Amino acid sequence: MQLISYPPTSTWESIIERPTPSFEDIEQTVADLFKEVQSKGENAIFKYTELFDGVALKSLAVNEDEIKEAISLVDDELKQAISIAKHNIEAFHQAQKTPRVEVETQRGVKCWQEKRAIQKVGLYIPGGSAPLFSSVLMLAIPAKIAGCEEIVLCSPPNKEGKIHPAIIYAAQLCGVTKIFKVGGIQAIAGMTFGTTSIPKVFKILGPGNQFVTVAKQYATRYNIAIDMPAGPSELLVMADESAIPSFVAADLLSQAEHGADSQVILVSTSISLVEKVQAEIKLQLQNLPRVDVATKAIANSKIILLEDNQKALDFINAYAPEHFIVATKDNAFFVENIQNAGSVFVGNYTPESAGDYASGTNHTLPTNTYARQYSGVNLDSFTKSITFQEIQPEGINNIGKVVELMAEAEGLFAHKNAISLRINYVEEAKNK
Q1: Whether 285 and 407 share a structural domain
Q2: pLDDT at 287
Q3: Which three-class secondary structure state does DSSP give residue 204?
Q4: Is residue 79 part of a domain?
Q5: What is the pLDDT of residue 326?
Q6: DSSP assignment, residue 306?
Q7: Quick one: 67 and 206 in the same domain?
Q8: CB 114 within 8 A of CB 100
């Protein structure tokens, strides 16, 4: 990891750049593939699945026999672990339900808001070198709680034309209605336009590499909503001399092993802590099965040494990390003042891994500074709010003149007339 000591604020913009291609670098590839899927449908998806995933499929849908086989291949111990994680994730997301909000803004004028589920959602689950069955829990559970009618899941097949059994097991456990063996750009395009077998959805959610991220953004051109631009994973750890170096190193490596394009950042006010963490990273790195992937990610990563907690906080808010671990003598300072982060992990005994799997919070989070303006996936990601209003005759009298004056001032006399007619009708009815 590159050590940068006391960088001036003027250099922060270049320091926080992620090691990923820009939208423009990938956009043409995505546009070409979308166009082909739009015109040729499933044939284009078969073509690109063979090209990118190296397997010639005869069918995209996962059938009942494949689901039964997958269930039998997942061992009981893992099933139990998934069950516990499911319980915790359900509990946290169930608690996010909000009641109807109702206000009488003036006498006779009642306004209220209710939430309705998005009817058709598409879930993208990465399944390459690391089959993320945990992402199925994070997406399908809140979709089911929200009441989505159709929950479509796409995940790339392996060389045998199969999806990892744990992904299929988690999908059927959490109420996914249809599962498809398709990944990458072609999966996003399939859910955007719909094909012979893949339904067109209203919103696409889920993490992915830079190609999936750009494809999701491109899908918005076709009236498809997305959760957020969630690209390659990232983690920032704020640690001082009170932190446990082996924990910090383990946390950094846990994100680095996601992919070569992942980025991890250590921010510290203690050079002593930094040196101990560097030694721990070298020690732990050699014992990882994914050492090659983690090594490449670590090469893209940085250690930032700063003067004090305030300077560190300012840098962290500028970086806007997807995952933010704080292990300092004054955790409360960072918890109370952090503005830009996807998810925060507080204290020496709260690894980011817990949030990735089983503590209950959602791990589908904004990356690449998007935490400045996006939330991570939550129950509201699967709903939309509808406002209602009902005006009684008394309300027309109370609010009518206001509407007339405002409509007339904007030159919209039909708007004014819609109110004036009602005012007159109420007045005439009262005088009868």
Answers
A1: no
A2: 87
A3: strand
A4: yes
A5: 98
A6: -
A7: yes
A8: yes
CA gap 14, 11 in Å, rounded: 6
Q: Which domain holds residue 406?
A: 392-431
Q: Catalytic residue positions?
A: 322-323
Cβ atoms 361, 342 nearer than 8 A: no
Q: What angle do CA 182, 382, 318 make, to 5 degrees?
A: 90
Q: How far is it, in rounded angstroms, from Cα 41 to Cα 326?
A: 47
Residue 99: CB atoms within 10 A of its CB come to: 7
In this structure, are residues 64 and 179 in contact, taking their beta carbons and an 8 Å threshold? no
Tell me, what CATH number does 204's domain have?
A: 3.40.50.1980
Total residues belonging to the chain: 432
Structure token pair of residue 47? 């073509």
**Of 194, 227, 260, which residue constitutes the final position of a domain?**
227
Give the list of residues 6+ apart from residue 407 with CB closer than 8 angstroms, or none.
413, 415, 416, 419
Say yes or no to pLDDT of 125 above 90.
yes
If asked whether residues 215 and 283 sit together in one domain, one would say: no
What is the spatial distance between Cα 322 and Cα 105, in angstroms, rounded to a whole number? 39
Domain count across the chain: 3
Flag whether 204 is in a domain.
yes
What pLDDT, on a 0 to 100 scale, did the predictor assign at position 261? 80
Is the pTM for the entire model greater than 0.70? Answer: yes
Answer whether 355's CB lies under 8 Å from 345's CB. Answer: yes
Give strand ranges (E) for 50-195.
101-106, 109-117, 120-124, 150-155, 178-181
